[in-house]
Design a protein that fits this description.
The chain is 32% helix and 27% strand. The protein is α/β, with parallel strands linked by helices.
Length: 230
């Protein structure tokens, strides 16, 4: 379980997360939704132990989230962080050296699925293919929690659907929890079990997807737009 207990985080005078209380159960696919700059990235970084809260506690399975939590949390950043002189295959080898749960066989399968050339240098990849490689690296870990920050940024809309199907193929939802932070939900709405809506650092709603559809008669996109306008 992931828990936020009265968690706040500021950058200077800007509030990224404000007095957040949150509990997330294992084995779910969770959408962290909201406009750009709403606090989605900071929320994921708090879970991954990459930033510390100014107030409150973030815990993962009872452990305080810090840099050591990376042994059970795989994090795909929205930033493009690569060693450009390496090939895609060499980047896989590097990740395998850093994470004990990295599965090289799965990584090779994902390279084929993503139609990536393992011998091509990263600096020669298009923005879309660099985005695909980031997904390969994140999804190849056998971590209990997979955090994806704007995973479809820069990807051609025509290939997003196949990549969403890849999420279902290459993750083990019997033991893995997937949290996707995005402001574009058309492609992932059908995947989601739960949605969290964040606006200006405030976690304004946390709902079961089926409850939203059945009780409010709205799609998740309609629900998001309606709540953000309030």
């Amino acid at each position: 379980m992931i828990k936020f207990e009265q968690v706040s985080k500021k950058y200077g005078k800007d509030i990224a997360v404000k007095e957040a209380d949150l509990s997330l159960e294992k084995g779910r696919i969770i959408g962290l939704l909201g406009p750009n700059g709403s606090g989605k990235s900071t929320t994921l970084k708090l879970i991954a132990g990459l930033v510390r809260p100014d107030k409150g506690v973030v815990s993962v399975d009872g452990e305080k989230a810090n840099r050591q939590i990376a042994n059970k949390v795989a994090y795909l950043t929205e930033l493009d962080l690569f060693y450009d002189t390496l090939t895609a295959g060499e980047m896989i080898d590097f990740y395998a050296s850093q994470f004990k749960d990295f599965q090289k066989e799965k990584a090779e399968e994902l390279l084929l699925f993503m139609k990536l050339d393992r011998t091509k240098k990263i600096k020669a990849l298009s923005k879309g293919n660099r985005g695909r490689l980031k997904l390969v690296l994140a999804l190849s870990r056998d971590a209990e929690y997979i955090l994806l920050d704007e995973p479809f940024s820069g990807l051609d809309p025509m290939v997003r659907d196949s990549i969403v199907k890849g999420l279902l193929t290459f993750l083990d939802f019997g033991k893995q929890t997937l949290i996707i932070a995005t402001h574009e939900i058309d492609e992932i709405e059908s995947l989601l079990d739960e949605v969290i809506l964040i606006k200006n650092g405030n976690l304004i709603s946390h709902e079961n997807v089926e409850d939203v559809r059945e009780s409010e008669g709205l799609s998740i996109k309609e629900w998001m737009i309606e709540n953000l306008q309030e």
